[in-house]
Amino acid sequence: MKDLKQKLIIEQIDSKLKVYAKVNPDNMPSSGWVNTIRTSIKMTLEQMGSRVNTSKQGAKKVEEREADGSITLNALKEAANALEMELVYGFKPKKGTIFKMIDEAALKKATEIVMRTSKTMELEDQKVNQERLNQAIKDKAKEITSNLPKYLWD
To answer: What are the CA-CA distances from residue 62 to residues 52, 73, 81 (Å)?
Structure first.
């Protein structure tokens, strides 16, 4: 990566995201965390509602919205606070790190670009062998990774 500042930024973000590596989104209880925690500590909906300045029905709506994914972060923060918890929010790179995500996207984009060029050359009866194509893809991917052009995410 040519831009050392950008590389440092990505390294710092990757470092911060490491804490989420072991988090599995599938571990969320089907009824949601708010309901699961509230019922496990035997807090009633009335008690929860009182702590977030709403009614029993309002507290139930919070639980339902969390379970169906339509809750806001602010509502989750309020619910967490009512449960004597802290809301922890973050992102987990699907590929493990941001660098791996960039490398895979660059390889995919490089393959598209090189193969498009290869097709044009083939139509002009200038076909390139597979070894040369593979090297061209690697070179283009390295260039893309190094420069992080905006078209990488198209």
So the answer is: 10, 11, 13
